[in-house]
Amino acid sequence: MLNIILFGPPGSGKGTQAAKLIEKYGLLHISTGDLLRQEIKDETPLGLEAKNFMNKGLLVPDDVVIGMISARLDAETEAKGVIFDGFPRTIAQAEALDRLLEFKKAPIVLMLALHVNDEALTERLLKRGATSDRADDQNEGIIRRRIEVYKNETSPVANYYDKQSKLVNIHGEGTIDETFALLVKELEEVA
Ligand code: ADP
Q1: For a FRET experiment, which of 101, 113, 137, 141 has its CA 20 to 30 Å from that of 130?
Q2: Catalytic residue selected from 37, 51, 72, 128
């Protein structure tokens, strides 16, 4: 199985690139943000709990997200591989993912980390907020908090995979197609 993590701050293009990668490689896309938004839409207890954190730009508690991922992976038996998008976002989540995948004998092969400067991120997210119904994209203060949370709680996860020699850094400030080409180049080496 080709299990990879697409990593990077909010607005770095993970969702956009994941959609292109699954089309090219026939992988399964698992985005915790999308799963959580679906839970909110369905008004499940998990969704109701998550919403309070998401609308403030804070992370949803680890146990909630890990439980959700575990259930999602259990339901999956056929996939050629998974692109994880927006997960893991903390060291505790990374450790939990490693354990879950060890059980399936299908470890993470690669972490592809997108790099985009803060100003470009804020600009991209405000633009997305103008045309979507995502509350967390519509307020500059909340966007800045998400970027801060990324720096403090999420960026150490890159180090965690670097220690396993799985981290590859990708320049993410070019066009969608330019970034995609950089990702494909890295994937061709492991696929
Ligand atoms: P973005 O990367 O643009 O912030 P996401 O859709 O990945 O968008 O995440 C939106 C929000 O969902 C996050 O700000 C956070 O509140 C919550 N979330 C998503 N994934 C996780 C996760 N793995 N752990 C904790 N919270 C998460």
Answers
A1: 113
A2: 128
pTM over 0.90: yes
Task: With beta carbons less than 8 A apart as the criterion, state whether 145 and 136 touch.
Answer: no
Q: Which of 72, 134, 144, 145 is catalytic?
A: 134
Query: Tokens standing for 103?
Result: 């059980």
Evaluate the omega torsion of the peptide bond into residue 45 and state whether it is cis, within 30 degrees of 0. no
Query: In the 3-class helix/strand/coil scheme, how is 3-30 assigned residue by residue?
Result: EEEEECCCCCCHHHHHHHHHHHHCCEEE
Could you report the per-residue pLDDT of 22-59, keeping only the tens digit for each? Answer: 999 999 999 999 999 999 999 999 999 999 999 999 99
72 among known catalytic residues: no
Domain 3-185 fold is: Rossmann fold (3.40.50)
Q: Which atom of ligand 1 is nearest to the CA of 146?
A: 14
Asked whether 53 lines ligand 1 (CB < 6 A), one says yes
- Hey, where are the domains in the chain? 3-185
127 is catalytic: no
125-136 confidence digits (pLDDT tens) = 999 999 998 999
Rounded CA separation 110/103 (Å): 18
User: Both ends of the chain: CA-CA distance in Å?
Assistant: 9
> What residue owns the CA closest to ligand 1's atom 3?
10
- Catalytic: 14? yes
